[in-house]
Amino acid sequence: MSSSKQPRRGKGRPVGSGDGVGKETLIAATKKLLQELTPAQVTIAAIAREAGADPALVRYYFGSREALLLEVTQQIALQAEVETRSEDLTPEAGLEDLIHRTFRFTRSARYMQRLMAEELSSVRSPEVREKLRKWQSIPVEAYQALLDADHDKQLTDFSPLFVHLAVIGISDFFHSGEEVVKMLVPEGTDLAALEQEYEAFVPKLLLDGLRRR
């Protein structure tokens, strides 16, 4: 007697999920969408559509949308570090370098800090939350390392956490508050050039406040 039951599919790659579509293709699609859309709009369906793949591939490779977003943001942050990071910087120069790296990370995606605050910070997976917590602590630990290396020579005592939070807010507003910025400058102002001036101004502002007198 023949059976009408179909064999159960294993946990491998989804059948017909998109020839040649791998992890890096999904990551690239996610990065592209984050340049154009708010984080809430970067759904599994949107990522799959951009990559030309089955949505099931996101779960196959990453387990969840949140894990994919975390992978993407970590890659972006790593690129921001690789661009100019130097191990031979003085504590004061290292502090300025950290500020510039935060700016690069913030502008790497249009709504990067919103992604961090609204999407990744509310993930339910304990594993992803722990990875995010450890990763988020890295800049604070870097500020602390610079303070320890200074030995009270150039920099006054400061809270690494407060400095990190201040730099995040300062770097983010130029993007999240872009419409306000436009209202405050003459029409036709080159915002890209203005942002460069702003980024150059912020380290001077903070270092003047943190430099030992």
Question: How does this model look, in words?
Answer:
Helix 1 crosses helix 4 (65-84). Residues 1-10 have low confidence and may be disordered. The chain is 67% helix and 0% strand. The chain has a domain at 84-210. It has 213 residues and is an all-alpha fold.
Task: Please sum up the structure shown.
This protein has a domain at 84-210. The protein contains 10 helices and no strands.
State the helicity in percent bands.
55-70%
What order do the SSEs take from the amino end to the carboxyl end, as H and E?
A: HHHHHHHHHH
Uncertain regions: pLDDT < 50 for 5+ in a row?
1-10
**Would you count the extended β strands for me?**
0
Q: Helix count?
A: 10
For the biggest sheet, the summary is: none
Shape: globular
Could you tell me the mean pLDDT?
84
- Percentage of residues in strands: under 5%
User: From the alpha-carbon coordinates, what is the Rg to the nearest angstrom?
Assistant: 22 Å
Structural class: mainly alpha
Question: What is the first-to-last residue Cα distance?
Answer: 92 Å
Topology:
Elements: H1 23-36, H2 44-51, H3 56-62, H4 65-84, H5 91-107, H6 112-119, H7 126-150, H8 160-176, H9 178-184, H10 191-210
Helix pairs in contact: 1-2, 1-4, 4-5, 5-7, 5-8, 5-10, 7-8
Keywords:
single chain, 213 residues, mainly alpha, disordered N terminus
